[in-house]
């Protein structure tokens, strides 16, 4: 509930403004967010916010920097694969904690100092895997496509999207569309992490295969690195099944 202007207010600071702004975005969405509404929440005039941020765009950049800059630091003592895994899952956690702000992060060009430091960190992981510049660029983009698309779907996508005005009843769908009914349990939110893991493993396995083929030489991706690979998560599941 918005704060009444008659209520006592805490002293303004960048930290407080950003904390309240993020909470407000999660309440009203990016489309409903405004400095006027934020001022009401803070118990101040909108012009007081502009003392800290020249414009709404500068404030949104600060929120971007706050979330990206707040991700755990890279642990250089780990393998490149462990570092990539931890980084991606930390990013996923951030998206789930801030689902209504995440679309802004997903579309932001990452051209603030904090954003560029994040890009440098990610690209360094791929270079440490043994990839050359072209391979690093391509795999960074491919994994980025997957991660951002998956997280938009998990936080605000298909399950939370528009529904038909007259949907097919479950009882009818079960008989008419048996495959849809059969896979439905694995579409539930409780299965999202396992599915996300499966896709990430498939892509990182490909990175590992290309790097093992001699990624240090600058040039196009080797053909042998493009063969289909079984994701590590599926291999592990198959191994457990065969040992039973």
Protein model, in words:
The chain has 244 residues and is mainly alpha-helical. It has 2 domains: 14-53, Homeodomain-like (Arc Repressor Mutant, subunit A, Orthogonal Bundle), CATH 1.10.10; 76-237, Tetracycline Repressor, domain 2. It has 12 helices and no strands. Helix 5 (80-97) packs parallel to helix 8 (133-156). The chain is flat. Residues 4-8, 215-220 and 222-229 have low confidence and may be disordered.
Write down the overall geometry: flat
The largest pleated sheet is described as:
none
CATH topology assignment of the largest domain? Tetracycline Repressor, domain 2
**Number of discrete helical segments:** 12
List the helices and strands and how they pair.
Blueprint (H helix, E strand, L loop, with lengths): L13 H15 L6 H8 L3 H5 L5 H14 L10 H18 L4 H6 L5 H16 L4 H24 L13 H7 L1 H6 L8 H21 L19 H11 L2
Helix pairs in contact: 1-2, 4-7, 5-7, 5-8, 7-8, 8-11
Keywords:
Arc Repressor Mutant, subunit A, 12 helices, Tetracycline Repressor, domain 2, 2 domains, 244 residues, mainly alpha
Q: How would you summarize this macromolecular structure in one to three sentences?
A:
The protein is 62% helix and 0% strand. The chain is mostly helical. It folds into two domains: 14-53, Homeodomain-like (Arc Repressor Mutant, subunit A), CATH 1.10.10.60; 76-237, Tetracycline Repressor, domain 2.
């Amino acid at each position: 509930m918005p704060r009444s202007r008659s209520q006592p207010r805490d002293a303004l600071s960048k930290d407080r403004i950003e904390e309240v702004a993020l909470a407000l975005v999660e309440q009203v969405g990016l489309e409903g967010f405004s400095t006027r509404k934020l001022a009401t929440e803070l118990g101040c005039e909108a012009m007081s916010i502009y003392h800290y941020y020249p414009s709404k765009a500068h404030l949104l950049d600060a929120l971007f920097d706050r979330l990206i800059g707040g991700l755990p630091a890279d642990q250089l003592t780990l393998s490149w694969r462990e570092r990539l895994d931890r980084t991606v899952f930390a990013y996923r956690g951030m998206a789930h904690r801030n689902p209504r702000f995440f679309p802004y992060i997903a579309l932001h060009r990452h051209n603030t100092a904090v954003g560029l430091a994040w890009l440098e960190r990610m690209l360094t992981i791929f270079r440490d895997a043994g990839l050359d510049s072209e391979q690093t660029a391509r795999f960074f983009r491919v994994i980025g496509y997957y991660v951002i698309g998956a997280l938009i779907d998990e936080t605000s996508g298909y399950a939370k999207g528009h529904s038909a005005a007259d949907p097919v009843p479950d009882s009818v769908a079960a008989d008419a569309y048996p495959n849809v009914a059969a896979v439905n349990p694995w579409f539930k939110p409780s299965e999202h992490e396992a599915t996300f893991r499966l896709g990430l493993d498939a892509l990182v396995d490909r990175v590992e295969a290309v790097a093992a083929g001699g990624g240090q030489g600058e040039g196009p991706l080797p053909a042998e690195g493009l063969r289909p690979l079984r994701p590590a998560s599926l291999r592990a599941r198959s191994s457990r099944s065969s040992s039973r």
